[in-house]
Amino acid sequence: MRFALLGDHPDGLDLAQALTATGRYTLHTYAGPPAGAAELRQRGLTFSLVPDVEEVLADPTMEAVIVASAPAVRAQQLRRAAQSEHHVFCVHPADDTPDIAYEAGMIQKDTRKVLLPVLPATGHPAVGRLQECLGPRGRLGPLRLVCVERVLPSFAEGADDIGRKAWFPGWDVLEVLGGTIVEVSAFAAGTIVAADEPTLLAGRFEKGGVFQVTLLPVASRGRLSLRLWAERGEAELSCVAGWSGPVRLVARGLEGEEQVEEWGSWDPWPAFIARFEALCAAPEEAKANAWQEAIRCLELDDAARRSLERRRVSPLEYPEADEDVGFKGTMTLIGCGLLWGLLALFVLSAWLPWAGWLVLPLLAVFLLLQLLRWLIPRRPSGGE
Fold first, then answer.
1. What pTM did the predictor assign?
2. Which of 112, 151, 321, 352 is most buried as measured by Cβ atoms within 10 A of its Cβ?
């Protein structure tokens, strides 16, 4: 499979190298800063250098594109890459707000190509092991509390650019462990997060349990520690050099029994590439769900920034598009129209007395419409 690389983000460079190393993929074209081209050549990769992104995306022989450009142009290039009907990898975050992610998701439904965010951390074996330990059937039981401390150079990528906003890493791992997050609170010295300003995040999971995250942008190398408490025990995970470095996981039961597991340096890309290849052959629903991870992270970023600006909890409530919601919305519109119609008939009846007799038939029709909810059989929840 021939692919192109747009931009020189480190994740994009690493992914391009990992794809080429499999022997199943060929880096055909690079479009980005000269420093990125020099780095790729230093890694032993050969490619064609094309300065025009549109020319790259218009190439009919291209099958996949890695969007790894600077934050200021990443959203625009993601939109164009998705429209070009290629498989697309996009480094995270795609933009400051979820808007481009929503748009890219709608484009993906038309093109039916794989649209995958470059968020490989959830593929770490330690995260999978923690996920196995949690839940009603897990060794530790249902989750009650997660505390994360993350030391990193900066979590405001592109903050030097005018108008760029901070993003908060780690939402993907939190939702893998605890499920959907429904409330977020953010705390900092000011109402806008600076690139070098400590920030506290807290929130609640939909299935129960809460979390607390401490972000400390005070070091040149990333470091992560995670501790969680569940009904039947607790676990502690430490990454002294981020997810790519050595990881140690200690799980303890209520009676004090301890289980220790350790992993050495971790290469995230083989599992990530395997996931991409599985999605290429997966049903359309699975391809669409893959991009939901990026949408969700951007929604949580946006909720955290709102909480910081307004100094209050930000709920993440999105109405479900099911039959009941659709029926209630339709009936609300009809009811509002009926009220205006009745008002018009009452006014009109002053000149045309027979118009007042239309009130009863209109009310009868509206009441009959309410019976449709019980007369028409419900669609099965898993039906199409």
1. 0.80
2. 151
